[in-house]
Amino acid sequence: MHSAMLHDTHFRSLLHVLLSALLLIPTAHAGLGITFVTPAAGSTWPAGPFTVSWQDSHSTPSMSDLVSYTLTLLIGGNSDTTSQTIRTIGEPNSPVSEGKVVADIPANVSASSQNGFYLKMVANTTSGSEIVNYSNRFTLIGLNGTTDETYLAAAQAANGANDVPAAYSIVSPTITSSSSSATSTPTSTARPA
Questions:
Q1: pTM of the model
Q2: Which domains does the chain have, with CATH numbers?
């Protein structure tokens, strides 16, 4: 009996350790239309060649509904006032269907910051709306540039590699016309603060 209880206690301890470890595994940040694959959450990349890849997120809209994108590299917190765009990655208005872009990150683009960097993709849809997606946070090393303390402090205040703004949609205005005039009814999804 004592042996069985000891075995059960050992099994529960092992199960607890395994479940705790699973919580630490970085996960992809699910987006609208796409999910970023690389850089992975919490990963470290040196200055120089930098690969960004994404895949269909199996959500609505789907990746095939996204036409072209502009991708930017940000440092800082999760709001416009605490984050700074430091570089455009690839060519603006590139096809989303490519699923990948390789760019160069120069060493002088910023100061390094542990999990202080993330990507923002603004994609146009086939219906004329825009979808905004964010990658998980990652680290860039070997940087020798300068970054305002406001953005560095906001990056350090982020709660882990998965703490980024939520994806959102900007719905294009609906235009209706009558015989004498046209009216516009703008609608949008509010961006999280």
A1: 0.75
A2: 26-174 (2.60.40.10)
